[in-house]
Fold these 2 entries.
Entry 1:
Amino acid sequence: MPDDQELIEQILAGDHEQYRQIVDRYKGKIVGYLYRMIGNMPDAQDLAQDVFIKTFYRLHDYRPEYRFSSWLYRIASNHCFDEMRKRKRTEQVEIDEEQLIDLDTPETTLLKKERDTELERSIMLLDEEYREVFVLFYIHRLSYREISEQLSLSESSIQMRLFRARKKMRDSLAKTMGGGAIYEMLHV
Amino acid sequence: MTCFMFNQWKLYANGELPPAESKGLEQHAVECPQCQIKLQEWVDYMLEEEFSAYPEVPVPDTFTDEVMSKLFEEVPVRTARKRSSRTRRQRGWDIVKKTGLVVAGLTALVVTGTAVSPTFANYVNSLFQIEKDADSGMKNAVNKGLVQKLEQKITDQGITFEAKELMADSMRIAIIFDMYDQNGKQIEDHSMKLQLIDSNGKDWLAEDGREESGSSHGQFFITELSLNDIFESAEATPDQLTLKIVPTDIEGKTGKWELEIPVDMKKAKEATKTVAFKDAVYQSPQGLELKLKQIEFSPSATRVMLDSTVPKSAYVEFERAVLMYDKDHPEGVHITNKKVEPTLSGGDIAYEITNEKGEVVAARDMFGLDKGIAKKKNVLYVSGLSSKQEGDITKWWHTFGPLQGEQKLKFQLQKVYENKLASPKFDLIPEDLNKKAATFKDETGSSFTFSSFSWTPASGEEKGKAVIIVEGTLGKDVVSIRYWYVKDENGKTYYATLNPESTRDKDGRVHFKGELVIPKLEQAPKRLTICYPEYTVEHHVNWEVPFEIK
């Protein structure tokens, strides 16, 4: 079976059908990731299709000295976070409208409050360097670029801090809320 | 040759560096091409790790068919056009800065329907002028008339891409642009590819694989391209360039929004003064050779260009304790690591540029020197590389804010820093430190006082950690001690890190205070030997090169 590198060379040389193999090779991984992040399968599949289309158009930018999978994951995670940002904005509007008719029952309010407290507690447990990036990214929904401007750091540094922050958050939330809680709590 | 900071990346990636050290490394990466690559490698590694944590899910075969049909049935034409050079490296396009300016405030300034002048005009109401994020250099370039109002726009699929202004200086090009839908709603979700083409059709960004994307809602966008690492001098810059902006993706749509902006570099080149030096070579007694090659003064920036060479004899073997993470030790393990590195570097120098009144107009100091004792002035962190290796020579390009007007200036090399090997050993009983501090002196004339020991046992994934407060006065000419390690009563070596706050006294001696942290120390040690394998000294230099901007 040809490796990623060989396939990409063939695709760039005009044999576009070979892209099918790339999609087949990675679709399970990409959809799996997006499903975990977004929470429903139809959306995860739609987003994964966007990712593969985007990736195809950017193949000429791929630098062979890096692993193809890392590069693809980079595109997938950026696309996912862009989508999460968009959703958060829409969600904000929906919540405001809901609140007008006051749909919150005492139980849901209490649950929400508990979750918020737990989330806040674990955010406060983060070191300052991770906390500020985490809050800007997940709570204020700024992009890597916007955060990098605000904090005068490179985008790669922001990504690294987010990896660390997510890991720490996952660990601390897993203890109290069980695995996977971080994404649920961040309403993604 | 690998960067001096390489050992730090693993610690950084695993969150083992203290915050200030972490931030220092991140800032260093902005300037160090080797470390930029290292950082990206770590980001990729973490991504791979994160993705491997998610289980693959079964995806129907129709998924692939749908992707393929979307690709080749809807927009088959674009695929051929997209091919280009595949040996790429990252360079050039800097972070898109958003303008600190809301659209509403601009309506009075943007006059539509006026004739577009193909040449640069002295465009007073420039958006750059009132944009709070534009640095002083950009604003100065605009004052010198290096700005051109653009009224180029293109609409496809209901989306308009509009280039509003161009600033073209010999050091950098910046563009203010906008992107909006038929209702005038601004679109931040976009990415674009750039080409900088000369009259022979050569694309100077052909090796650049990076794409740009958008910024915040409700404002214009500004993006900057550094020419520093593309053209080695103003003369080497072509008179005519064409900046081709190709949005590749706007809100997930692909379409035709290409804009070609002619960039007349003649005025920028004329406005750039270059002082070339002949035989301005300094040979330090330690062996570092520094050659001041030229200084360029453009309206937007000043660039000091230096070459450095280090003799073979300056390479020595350093042994440092590091925390290593690998497959066998995913939690990290303390090991010692040997590495041959030069004790001198063209980057480890301090210099000033002074004017006739003796005022310092620009100053640069060794990277990584604590900010309490570093002397820096007017340093401009524009994008682009600041050093590159060509054989034995390392080229250094240092950028400062603009220095304009006819004046007599002086380049003054003040310090050459050198790393030296050391082998001090401070034996102490940690528990006793809380009752009585322990003070030691070593062969460098430095004194250290260790106090207040604390050890936190393991909890969850975090292994134990020890912290000792250290205060000290460094020996004459010693400016910093970057690497530390400790040995416990069983002779086991642990990596340790100190994040000091430093000051200088009137005699120039450096005083510091900070926490010495020993991460992943599973048991409280009964005895500790604290060591540092190397230290940095400053050699005072008084090498002056007078010059004149005419």
Entry 2:
Amino acid sequence: MKEKKIEIKKKLMSIFSPRKLVLWLSILILIFTVPTFNKSAMSETQAIVTMLCVDKVDDKIKVATTVLTPSQDKKANFQVYSGEGETLGYAVDSISLAMGKEMGFAQCKIMALGENICDEGVMQVLDYMTRTKKVGRNAVLVSFTGDVIDFTQAVANLNLEKSLRLDRIVSFDKRYILTQDSNIETFYIGYYSPISLGIMSKVKLATTEEFNAIEVASADAGSSSGSSTDMNSTGDGGENKKFIMNDGTVSLFKQGKHYLDMTLDEVKKANIFVNDAQKGTVVVENVTDHIYNDAKVVVNILKKDIAVEPNFKDGIPIYKTDVSLTVFIDEVIEENPSERLLRRNQDFLTNALIEKIKQKMESDMREIIEYCQDNKVDLLGVYKHFYALKNKDFEKYLDRVGEDYLNEIDYQISIDVKSEN
Amino acid sequence: MKINYRQLSIITFMSFIALKFLALPSLLYIESKNMSMFVSLILMIIDGLYAFVILDLMKKSGEKNIYEFMKNCLGTVATKIVLILLIIKYALVAGNISKGLEFFVVENLYTEFDWFVFVLPLMILVGFMVYKGIRNIARVSEMVCWAIVIGLIYIALKALSGMDILSYLPFLKDGFKPLVDSAWIHLSWFGSATFMFMLFGFVDFREEKKSKMIKYIIFAILIVELLYFVFYGLFEVTSPTHNYCISDISQFSSTYSAIDELSWLVVSMWIVAQAVQLALYSYCLAQAIKFLFDIKNNTLPIIIVVLYIFAWSFIGENTVRMERIFFTPFASIVTFVAQYILPILLEIVYAIKNKKKRAKDRIERVKDEREKNRDKKEINVNI
């Protein structure tokens, strides 16, 4: 009996010996992998979506996508597909149904949201697209004006005609306007912060030529479910000219809903408070001294250091901002430029000019503080600074004043201007 | 076949960073919020200290393996119970690594990827590495270690500029309680030194340099904390929604530069390191099964372990979140006993046994001397 047991054990061991183990596993691999050879290519079953535009028209969600079709020649082949439905899911599915392909959103680099959906609230759209459809959270997020299909076609044409990409145009805003990425992740961080403030770039679709607008051809297309337009060839027949315009307008969202738009000028003023916004210009007028004669001087900001010190004195919050600027004189506009301007070895950053720069900066900063107070929008990070650095006092203060916490703060500003030399 | 002290230090380093860069940082944030990196810091320091306690035991065991050593200290029954406990611990860690890797590759890295295309080669790799033994695992760890270190530092530094330091303030706003709660709930992700138990008798201490082990452990802690510091600074309140820390940090802000593609290279290297860690814990699991059931052959334990990893592919596939399986009080208790109680218990029992043995030896020595003296006296009297 015992011998028999040992024999069985030996047999078992010989079946599962390390060498045979590899063989068994190889057989397993073959069993699992061979059937996959029969599967069709992924490009035949999945559409590569590179941009998604969503809006709401007459209680229906309208969706338009640009789909990249791989082709043997190196020319990019974008096609615009659109669909509509009661919900976003239905709208996306209607495109799938029309195409006979699953929509693959992993390569979706842009999510554009129309005005109506922005007013109604964008969080459901973002949640559905990131959680269910797996759009990457680093996808560029923009709000747009105009028809959803027209806008999508215009963006596709922008790429084909001008070799410009909307995601890169908007990403450029980070350096000069937004000081942060306009993407889904940063929008989420803003939304889930205590002040629930989201920011995204706004791109406009215009039908008439405007300043800063880029002209693109936009083919007419119906908006029925699953309709498509091939954007590979852009002939003249049946096309309207459209203009895409990124003029620096920024949309602000509160609780995920569109709250207000800021102009480029307002954004630039707000950026004085932001350390990451290093670039900027200051224009001062009526500068008169031993160098300038009633001159208009354009000063470039080379470097900016912001030191924020929140404090409480007798229960009153004080928000002290020290701005230190290193500047460089860019343009001097005088009616009759004097020869003094041509002299070398002199400091063009005169005391009079410094004073003017300080006055201008302070007035801009005060203006934006007022703007924030009027609109109840904390663009300066006041909440964050007080919460982080003066937590207990600030919580007491918040209990007292609630949402209007920006109004009772004493804003102290000090500006220091240095020459690059 | 033994490994040297340097190789042990590298394996320890890899074990310390093994489970840290996927779901753990996001889970820690749920309880301990902006103080989460301090939870991991404290637990990793404790792990580091316990690594030296286990090392001390390893040295005391000499050529004995863990089974022989524990049997000597605790007796057969207690040893078997401890082995069951260690099997659970290793099984949890191996399962966690394999499931984490599977989720990461199948769900995050690719849009459509059949799980078995990943799991089957992984099974073969793990089976082969466990079969080849600890020396093989150590050598592969040596090969990938520095590439991983450089890659992780690169990912952290690249994302550093996007983080907001203010998100770490106010410091300890709700006191220590959330930190303690978080540490207890997520304890099963730590206990990184428990693998050392299965290396008793397999380490050559001739070139022992404690400073080397200290350096590697400190280095592991610093790298994990650097990544966590960046992670929480970048994602702030959305941290709990980022289950793939390593790829999410690298993809936070794509700048369309060629250097961005390097991030994926780092992630790929990190996957290799995870596979090696899976092999290490599978090796420990196979060893523990071998000791528990007194199996002479290596084959059967390896088959059990490989099938166990395969079984994990079916558990909670794409639906049940990993934390539901791992973050039970049971898993925390297992880790607590295996990592924190067991080494101290073994040290105490060993010291008591040694003391008794020394006392017994002394008594016998005194007896011998007395007998010798008596014999001498008798001889003298006879003379």
